[in-house]
Structures are given as C-alpha cells and as structure tokens.
Specification:
Strand order of the largest sheet: 1-2-3
Number of helices: 2
Helix content: 25-40%
Structural class: alpha+beta
Largest sheet: 3 strands, antiparallel
Number of domains: 1
Strand content: 15-25%
Order of helices and strands: EEEHH
Number of strands: 3
Length: 84
C-alpha cells in the first residue's frame, strides 16, 4: 500500500497538488499527475472546510483527517487509499 495524501488544489484536468501534513507539508506540497494516483471517493471533511474558505489547512488537520480516513477504510474494508 502506498502513502495516503489529500488533494488540496486542482491545477487542471491533468495535475493536482497533494500533501500529507507530515513529509509533504502544506508549505511544500507536491504537484502530481492525476494518472499516477489511485483516487477514492473519500473526503477529508476538515480539510475541505478550510479550502472552501480559501484558507490553507494546518498540517495537524491534514494528518488527523488522513488518519481518520485510513482507520475508517480499514474498519469498513473498503480499500483504495493506496496512492502513488
């Protein structure tokens, strides 16, 4: 299983900006080709609230939301948080 990230910006139909709040912090996000990601329908709600207000979410919020989504994913057996 790869590392889990959240998308914090969509540049165009091909590229997105991702971060994990740990290694890839919001201050230094990664530009990623969307074809190289395994996307899920899961949403990091707290991160979305910040983004809707045009604010950068703090790294601890990003990390907390990713952990919650991973825990939920394992509990529900949904799979699919694997991103590359």
């Amino acid at each position: 299983m790869g590392k889990a990230f959240v998308i914090v910006d969509v540049l165009n139909e091909r590229y997105v900006i991702i971060c994990d709040g740990d290694i890839r912090k919001i201050e230094n996000p990664k530009k990623k080709n969307i074809r190289h990601l395994n996307l899920t329908s899961m949403q990091a709600q707290d991160v979305l609230e910040y983004l809707r207000k045009s604010e950068k979410p703090p790294n601890y919020v990003i990390k907390k939301n990713i952990k919650q989504l991973i825990d939920k994913d394992i509990t529900n057996g949904e799979g699919g948080l694997e991103n590359g």
